[in-house]
Design goal:
Elements: E1 27-28, E2 34-36, E3 39-40, H1 41-48, E4 52-56, H2 57-74, E5 79-84, H3 91-99, E6 103-106, H4 109-117, E7 125-127, H5 134-142, E8 146-149, H6 152-165, E9 169-176, E10 198-199, H7 203-211, E11 216-222, H8 233-250, E12 258-260, H9 278-295, E13 302-305, H10 309-312, E14 316-328, E15 332-337, H11 346-350, E16 356-358, E17 369-374, E18 383-390, E19 398-402, E20 422-427, E21 430-435, H12 451-456
Parallel strand pairs: 4-20, 5-6, 5-13, 6-7, 7-8, 8-9, 9-10, 9-11, 11-12, 12-13, 15-17
Antiparallel strand pairs: 1-2, 2-3, 4-14, 14-15, 14-19, 16-19, 17-18, 20-21
Helix pairs in contact: 2-9, 3-4, 5-6, 8-9
Bound molecules: pyridoxal-5'-phosphate.
Length: 457
Amino acid sequence: MEAKKSFLEQKIDLESPNKNIVPITTSIGTDGKLTIGGCSIEELVEKYDSPLYILDELTLRNSCRAYKKALEKYYPGESLPIYASKANSSIFMSNLVSSEGFGLDAVSEGELLTALKGGVPNEKIVFHGNNKSDKELDFAVKNNIKVIVDNDYDLERLDKISNSFNRELEIMIRFTPGIECHTHKYIKTGSFDSKFGFGIEYLNTLFERISNTKHLKLKGIHAHIGSQIFELEPHNDLGEIMVNVILDAKKFGHDIKKLNVGGGLGIKYTEDDDPPSIYDWVKTISNSVVRACKKYNLDLPTLMCEPGRSIVSTAGITIYKIGAFKEIPGIRTYLAVDGGMSDNPRPITYQSNYSACLVRNPLNINSKNKYTIAGKHCESGDVLFKEIELADCKTGDLICVFGTGAYNNSMSSNYNRIPRPAALLVCDGEAEIIQKRESPFDLLKYDVLPDRFIKQN
Ligand SMILES: Cc1ncc(COP(=O)(O)O)c(C=O)c1O
């Protein structure tokens, strides 16, 4: 029987990186070891230590370009793709997406500042959030950043702010379209029972309330139905629902020019995943909006979308070093790595699956072993992989986990006072630091011992 091919031997889709498990520059060197972006992973770890986050520039740029090209191809009106920075927020990522003509979606003052520092033009930033602070709202308005109103509390405060400045303020609103999609319940946001956005049944009341304000101008609507979605049907339905909302708003005198369909396109984490391409996703959503606009004789709005995961996830890998082994006869063999739930909380939070390989034997030649890969944190659930097939491993070996560019670094913590890894960018055989490694001393920076305790000791 022919041996099963490794996922590393699959043909790489250069046009739509979300359809691959690995970064598009992944290759196996003449020594049989793993390289990304033309860099030897072993050499990178020698120089920068582990665990290590690595982003591949070409994969990032190809993902951005796929959205841009697909929008130009399939949407005849104006369009603006916006990077959902919650997926991986950094000055570098802000700068990269901006250089590809993207706007950026931020949900906190921290993400807003990061976007501005990275050079994203203010007018291309949108500000989301279901509980924005007064300070955050003020910051956004003063910096001419478009606020996406999520609830009445936002609306009341923006009304006050615009009155105090005595100037018009353009806003967008987020609503829940009542679309169900098959994804994890924590990342499903478009159904009626969601903490985000206005219920669709409330919109007429909302339109009237906005009409009664002096300075608020409703210019856009937004919906985001969930994340890691493989079906196209929900986004096909979304276009028509959103166009109907624009028509309803018209009855209240609102001239809505922007239609933002959120993000949500899934990526291939394992061989079982088969997400649509970026082109098919954009085509579906574009056709749906164009069809509905034609049907109701409406001018095409500016089409915005907010991909996060499908821009950055496949571009990212994490490298860990193997330490301890624990064999439980007849049950399993644990191998422990030098990171885990603090640098990647997704397995413990969403039971997420990934693909991985041994850096010195990526094709898993002569594999007979199944390992359970445990993190180093004091939590039994800190397990990155249950029963993964790997080539024979030993202490000191490096493991590469693929698809970790999104919602890993940005969701990381310092649980057990473990410093965050460094992050590198690789391209054409060169590696550059985009995030310095934290040290345990950095983690002490914000601790304060009150004076009277110092005196006591
Ligand atoms: C409002 C909004 N837009 C965009 C995104 C990005 O989604 P994804 O990373 O699945 O593309 C999210 C993710 O949670 C979101 O909440």
